[in-house]
Amino acid sequence: MEGILRSWHAILMGRRPAMSIEITRECPLTCPGCYAFNDNHLGAGLGLRDVTDLKGDALVERVIQLVRAERPLHVSIVGGEPLVRFRELNRLLPILSGMGIYTQVVTSAVRPIPPEWASIRRLDLSVSIDGLQPQHDARRKPATYDRILKHIQGHTITVHCTVTRQMARAEGDVETFVRFWTDVAAVRRIWFSLYTPQVGELSAERLTAADRARTVAALRALAPRYPKLAMAPGLLAALEAPPSSPEQCIFAKVTRCVSADLERTVTPCQFGGRPDCAQCGCIASAGLAAVGRYRLPGGLEVGRVFDWSMRVGEQSQRLRDAVRARFPEKAPLPPGKTPETEGA
Ligand code: SF4
Ligand code: SF4
Predict the structure, then answer these.
(1) Where are the domains of the chain?
(2) Ligand 2 atom having least distance to the Cα of 249
(3) 3-state secondary structure of 200
């Protein structure tokens, strides 16, 4: 509830409460269906590998500057593979925690997760594991099951599985997966997304409507039996009926996604390019869609309140911009700006 109220306040002030940062363009994996390395990830035929990324002090300082300017409540560190920049993250993560920001690092666990991360408050480690060992190891080597099991020791992690068509059609794989990772002590919870294609994509990963329905039905049946499987009924219902466009997607509207040069914005959401919203399987989008579809006492949908709040936030931001233009010395800085970042 505190998070919802703080997010609502940020939206009313014209800010986006969530930020996703592609901390590096490097990754030792070559996963089929990787959206980050899609040729058109950044639009205009540009992919993540086409941008220049930062390292060392420059990366640490620029991320802090960006976060101070935008003032998100939640930051996702994605890639590429974030552990490629583990030295910089060793410095950054405690700073973000000290700023009261909830941070999620999304990783393949291809290398050991630094032990000191286990004691950082407000940090969630989300390890991507796509299917049972034979399929996963083939798709995501060198981040194999054996390495993951070794590298997560001493940590508490979230397992995040993206279901592809191959997994959706293998009878019983979803339950076998949930059972295996439930029995691993380091696992706190298990999340599932469904593979999200680009518009017009014809790939082996893309799910048909029947694949989607079967997978959601399986998760619905399993959730009451496996407490670590964190797939609430509203979230599963939202996976069955994704937002029809970025304009209908609360997640896309509240999250600023920044690429590895820490300048370009990835649009319309973290997938970049032209994602097929009608076939979106992103757990974050589904989670916020579920919140948006919740009806308050009296029948009003939370999503309606959200849309109203976004408009108020945009207008208040425009008003502040106008005041600043008229009285540059006297007007307060706009939200998300600090004296040192203003004008940067
Ligand atoms: S680990 Fe992530 S960024 Fe790297 S290839 Fe796989 S999906 Fe892409
Ligand atoms: S998260 Fe899904 S629904 Fe939202 S904009 Fe991206 S593809 Fe569309």
Answers:
(1) 18-298
(2) 4
(3) coil
Q: Phi/psi at 102 (nearest 5 deg)?
A: -85, 125
For ligand 1, what atom is nearest to the CA of residue 28? 4
- Report the phi/psi class of residue 69: left, alpha or beta, with left for phi > 0 and alpha for psi in -120 to 50: alpha
Give the up-direction half-sphere exposure of residue 302: CA atoms within 13 A in the CB hemisphere.
14
341 Cβ partners below 8 Å, 6+ apart? Answer: 65, 68, 69
Q: Which residues does residue 106 pair with via DSSP β-bridges, in sequence order? A: 126
pTM: 0.90
* Topology (CATH level 3) of domain 18-298: TIM Barrel (3.20.20)
For residue 279 and ligand 2, the question of a CB distance below 6 A is answered with: no
* Ligand 2 centre distance from Cα of residue 218 (Å): 23
Q: What is the pLDDT of residues 102-156, one digit of tens each?
A: 999 999 999 999 999 999 999 999 999 999 999 999 999 999 999 999 999 999 9
CA gap 43, 267 in Å, rounded: 8
Contact 144, 138 (CB under 8 A): no
